[in-house]
Amino acid sequence: MFSSAPAQETSPKEKGSLLSPDLVELIKLDPAFKLDIRYATPNNFTGRPVYSEARAFLRRPVADALLKVHKKLKEKGYGLMIFDAYRPWSVTKLFWDRFPGFRGYLANPKKGSRHNRGCAVDLTIYDLKTAKEIEMPSPFDDFTERADPDYKGGTPAQRRARDLLRTVMESEGFKVFKNEWWHFDYKGWQEFPIMDLRFTEIPPMKTE
Hints:
By secondary structure, this protein is an alpha+beta fold. The protein is 21% helix and 16% strand.
């Protein structure tokens, strides 16, 4: 069922002095970031691809913080598997307009998403030896109570893995979303503007 009241047609115009865009491609920071970009495949809640490429970008300070998380987890035998990172505003609008039944879990395009700012990441952990994803209390994009970061069900091993991810992420300035254990926002996200760049339009990563 499609919404009869679509969102506005252009991204929100924000006031104040916001930091300029500087998006970093994660696998260029560390090839050990494992990508499972679900929105580039039919394996997501929409049932079809909404990205043309399986790529992951974040703002430079966010990417640098995530790299620190990645290194801490490596010491424990784990790596980070990325489901989603920067998301163009037009995709947020598509979700809102076409899937009204999920709006309790979706960002309103009138305000934009932290993904649109390059300051949110959806992720999990994988075993460095086997390259297999570690089991959590719920899968990614689960719209049930099992996705709650404080959910008490599941197995002890699943909860330990979820809590380890949260602990290490929070140690580097990220905050878990209230009903999605896989979604983390970076501190100071308000300082970055909403963007609607397609992946192919993102400028090449600057070198230091």
